[in-house]
Amino acid sequence: MKRAIMKSVSGVSAPAKKTSSVKTKKATGIKSLKKQYVKSNNICKVTFRLPKDAAQNAEMVTIVGDFNNWNLTENKMKQLKNGDFTLTLDLPCSREYRFRYLIDANRWENDWFADKYLPNDFGADDSVVVV
């Protein structure tokens, strides 16, 4: 079972949400991480998607991770009509990237469908995408 951990910037952790990724994927029909490999360039187009349920009425979401040196503002996600947030990034293949979603510049959320999770230096876990 995969889990999501919410953490505020101030370092106060909220309770972890545990979800069955198989059940949730079937119920919503949406996978958070979509990967499209481009062999000619050795890159993977990764579409990140934060569901409305995880965003909880967010006005702005950015994706922050190894691929942008943990820049808090560089990769702003687009809000869809259904309330989900999405962004596609071109990532070099044969790597793993740690990342998290920053919601309204004050709340961290993990990807509920990440390939795996790794502990970080702040007492929480980072989401990981493997390409």
Explain what you see.
The protein is mainly β. Helix content is 9%, strand content 44%. Strands 2, 6, 9, 10, 11 and 12 form a 6-stranded antiparallel β-sheet that branches. The N terminus is likely disordered.
What is the structure about, briefly put?
This protein is mostly beta strands and 131 residues long. The protein contains two helices and twelve strands, in the order βββαββαβββββββ.
SSE topology:
Layout (H helix, E strand, L loop, with lengths): L1 E3 L2 E2 L8 E3 L1 H8 L5 E5 L4 E8 L1 H4 L5 E5 L12 E2 L5 E8 L3 E8 L3 E3 L6 E4 L5 E6 L1
Antiparallel strand pairs: 1-3, 2-10, 4-5, 5-8, 6-9, 7-8, 9-10, 9-12, 11-12
Annotation field: number of helices: 2
Q: In one word, what is the shape?
A: globular
Under CATH at level 1, the class stands as: Mainly Beta
What is the rounded Rg? 14 Å
Through-space gap between termini: 21 Å
Largest sheet: 6 strands, antiparallel
Give the strand tally: 12
Strand content: 35-45%
Low-pLDDT segments: 1-28
Q: Give the structural class.
A: mainly beta
Q: What name goes with the CATH superfamily?
A: Immunoglobulins
* Helical amount: under 10%
What name does CATH use for the topology? Immunoglobulin-like
